Every structure is written in structure tokens, then in C-alpha cells.
Automatic annotation (TrEMBL):
SUPFAM superfamilies: Pectin lyase-like. It comes from Pseudonocardia sediminis. This is Parallel beta helix pectate lyase-like protein.
Length: 436
């Protein structure tokens, strides 16, 4: 079956080919034929602003195999689009707006590891909807999904200052006894969520080969999380790289992932943790992640019980107006008996007293409870300038730490660029101690 209109027109009944639906339950358009195609039309719950849907869907692909939705606008249903019992379907260049529950519901419970679905180039979210909540994309079973180049957004749209926020952007909620793989989530923009930008959860199901790369996420809600894995089973081959995560509580929060990498992510206005590792984060590489000058929470925190393969480089510019000396810039924490390396580069100066530069590397040796950590100089320290010194100071018996400390001989204003590279299986956290 092929259903083609002349275009979906503008929003809310303005022009184009349209299917209008008014009941608060039920399905406006059901596709049950393999290979069905819908193009260039709108499906709208005509009364959504006064009588919200409480069940049903705008478009239901009851046998979604090889189906395609192209340039379709769906507005105002409980679930705007449901893809059930099918595989190899595509949803491209659609507008999925004003849903009460899910924008896209993706599930194939009877065949949980088959097919390769594609969700490309869609706009999913709220434009005029003043009711908060809802999830843009909810996946629970079926084969892997390529989710690329989509825009998820809500809140404060142009000309619509009362638009509410979404609860979640993308939620992979693994159904029990589901086992599938291959989820490239690449190049999307996900904004204005109150809970999660990308969440992976579930109890007795399993997914592997998850790649989250080059996405932009922004919440503007202090308690939110950019990317979180909260499932009960392991995700093997979990890779999270080159994402820009702004204005969230915690940027990346991990649980039960292994054999992957978290590399090259960055953001501004991260209110809590940059990266927080919980239970069983195993054989993961961390490196070159950059977070803002937040002094309350660490940029990196590991509480997984398994030493990560960490290679974290933290770089910041500091302007300090103070006569206090010494000043502690960074704190690096280690596990009991942990071993790790700390490399430091500092360039800058104090007032008109002159420029300074330091380059040095230390092996930090955390010992048994009751003993302060030790440090070993690696190579030869390099120092230039005489009005400031920099050093690593170790302390802490039950919670081994080392501190990057500067001391100056005079002046007030300090302007520095500081780069700290901390790595090794004993690394637990890295925290900036003074605001930039």
C-alpha cells in the first residue's frame, strides 16, 4: 500500500493533505501491509489542545517490515507513531510533534534481534504544547536502530514562550529476555529535557555495540543527566565520543558497561559531575574529556569497584585575584593500593612579576590505610620563572589524594593555563578546586 499526499502543509490544519482525528483513544491510520509507504501528508489529532489523547496512536505500523514514512507530519496523539511487529523500516524527514506520551514507540517483542531500522533527519518534540513530559523516542525491543541527524526539542519555541519541556529524549528500555545489538546514535541535537537526554535501562534484557557520537545535548535543568546507562545487564562495546553536553546536572553517568571508550566529550555549565562511574564499569578507556570550571563536584568520579583504564586530560584557564598563598588548583584521588600517573603543564604569570612555566610528571602510590600516598618523580622537571612554584602534595590515608599546589613570592593577580593529565588503574576522581 502506498499513500501519498501533496505535502503535509503547515502546522495545525493549514494546507496540504491531512487526516484529521478527534477521539481521545484509537488509531488514526493503521498500516498492516509489508512494505507500506506513507509520504507527504499530515495526520493530526484535531482536538489535542482542548481534549488530549489518553491512548492510541496517530500512525501504527502493525506490520512494519520494509515500511517507510517520509516527509509526514504527525501531531497531538498519545503515541504519535508506533512501529510494531516489523523490521527494516525507515522514518525519514518527518515532524513528530505535541505527543502526550511517546513521539516514536519502537518495539518488536516477538522477534527481538532482527532487522536494521533507520530513523533519519526528523524533528521530534513540542512546539506549542504547554503540558510538560513525554519521551521523544522510546525503544523496547526489535533489532538495532540507526538514529542519526534528528532534532529533538521543546520549550520556549519561537513565538511560543509557554512551550513545555520533554522528560526524555531517547530511551532504550530493554525488554526482558530481549537480546540485540548495533545502536549508532550519531549527529543528533537533543534539547530541553528534564530527566535524560539519552537513557539506557532495563532488567533482564541485553543490548551491545552502542555508539553515541557527535551529538549535542542541552537540558537547562540542574537535576538532569545528559547520557546515562542504568540497565541491569552489561553493555559490551559501549563507545561514547565527541558529544557536546551543556547545561545539565551530570553530563555522563555510567553503570555496567565494559570494553569501550568515553573519549573527547565536552561541555559547559555542567552543574554536578562531568563523568560519574557507578557499578561495574569494566575495561573502559576514558580520555580527553573536557568540562567547565565547576569546583563542587569532580570532573571525573569512579565508584565502580573496577579500576578503569583512565587517560583523562583536563585543561583550564584560571584568573585568580588573591594574596593567599599557597593555592590548591586540582585534587586527584586514587583507590587504596592504586597506582597512577599525574602529568602537569602550567604556563602563565603573576602580575607584572614575570612569566612562569612548569612541566613535570609523578607516579602516585596509594598505600594501605594508615599511610599517606607516596610519589616518585618521573624524568626531569622543567621550570621557568622565579616568582611562583608548583608541586604535587600527597595526603589522605583512607582516601588517598594528591593536590596540585602553587605558591608565589608576591603579587596578587595570577593568570594561568593549567593542563593536568591523570591516568592509571588506580585513578578515582579529578576535581578542580578553584574557579576559573
Amino acid at each position: 500500500m502506498k499513500l501519498v499526499g501533496v505535502g503535509h502543509g503547515s502546522m495545525y490544519g493549514l494546507g496540504g493533505s491531512r487526516i484529521n482525528f478527534t477521539p481521545t483513544t484509537g488509531v488514526a491510520l493503521t498500516l498492516s501491509g509489508v512494505g507500506s509507504v506513507v509520504q507527504d501528508l499530515a495526520v493530526e489529532h484535531a482536538a489535542w489542545q482542548t481534549s488530549r489523547a489518553t491512548a492510541g496512536a496517530g500512525i501504527r505500523l502493525a506490520a512494519a517490515t520494509h515500511c517507510a514514512l517520509d516527509r509526514v507530519m504527525v501531531i497531538g496523539f498519545w503515541n504519535n507513531v508506533e512501529c510494531l511487529e516489523g523490521e527494516y523500516y525507515t522514518i525519514t524527514d518527518c515532524k513528530i510533534l505535541e505527543f502526550a506520551h511517546y513521539g516514536l514507540l519502537l518495539a518488536h517483542d516477538s522477534s527481538n534481534d532482527h532487522g536494521d531500522q533507520a530513523i533519519y533527519g526528523n524533528h521530534i518534540g513540542k512546539f506549542r504544547d504547554t503540558t510538560p513530559g513525554g519521551t521523544a523516542v522510546y525503544w523496547r525491543s526489535g533489532g538495532g536502530v540507526r538514529f542519526q541527524n534528528n532534532k529533538i526539542n521543546a520549550f520556549g519555541q519561537t513565538g511560543e514562550p509557554n512551550t513545555a519541556r520533554l522528560a526524555k529524549g531517547i530511551h532504550l528500555d530493554i525488554a526482558d529476555f530481549t537480546s540485540t545489538s548495533v545502536f549508532p546514535i550519531v549527529g543528533n541535537s537533543i534539547e530541553n529535557f528534564t530527566e535524560h537526554g539519552i537513557l539506557i535501562s532495563g532488567n533482564a534484557g541485553n543490548i551491545d555495540k552502542v555508539t553515541i557520537t557527535a551529538n549535542e545535548l542541552a537540558s537547562f535543568v540542574a537535576g538532569s543527566v545528559g547520557i546515562e546507562t542504568a540497565q541491569s545487564s552489561f553493555i559490551y562495546s559501549f563507545n561514547c565520543s565527541a558529544n557536546t553536553i551543556n547545561d545539565v546536572g551530570t553530563a555522563i553517568r555510567l553503570k555496567r558497561v565494559r570494553e569501550g571508550a568515553v573519549i573527547g566529550n565536552s561541555g559547559t555549565s555542567v552543574y554536578d559531575y562531568g563523568i560519574r562511574c557507578g557499578e561495574a564499569v569494566i575495561k573502559m578507556d576514558f580520555g580527553r574529556n573536557k568540562w567547565p570550571s565547576e569546583t563542587t563536584y569532580p570532573w571525573f568520579f569512579d565508584n565502580s569497584g573496577y579500576p578503569p583504564l583512565s587517560d583523562n586530560t583536563f585543561e583550564t584557564t584560571l584568573f585568580i585575584n588573591s594574596t593567599v598563598t599557597p593555592i590548591d588548583l586540582f585534587e586527584i584521588g586514587f583507590t587504596q593500593y592504586g597506582r597512577g600517573f599525574v602529568e602537569v603543564e602550567i604556563t602563565g604569570g603573576v602580575d607584572s612579576l614575570g612569566a612562569n612555566a612548569y612541566l613535570f610528571k609523578r607516579l602516585i602510590e596509594a598505600n594501605a590505610n594508615g599511610q599517606d600516598p607516596g610519589q616518585v618523580t618521573i624524568g626531569t622537571d622543567v621550570a621557568s620563572g622565579g616568582n611562583m612554584t608548583a608541586a604535587i602534595v600527597t595526603a589522605g590515608q583512607a582516601n588517598p589524594t594528591c593536590v596540585l599546589r602553587i605558591t608565589r613570592s608576591g603579587g596578587t593577580n595570577i593568570n594561568l593555563t593549567v593542563k593536568v593529565r591523570a591516568y592509571g588503574q588506580g585513578l578515582k576522581h579529578v576535581k578542580q578546586l578553584v574557579a576559573g
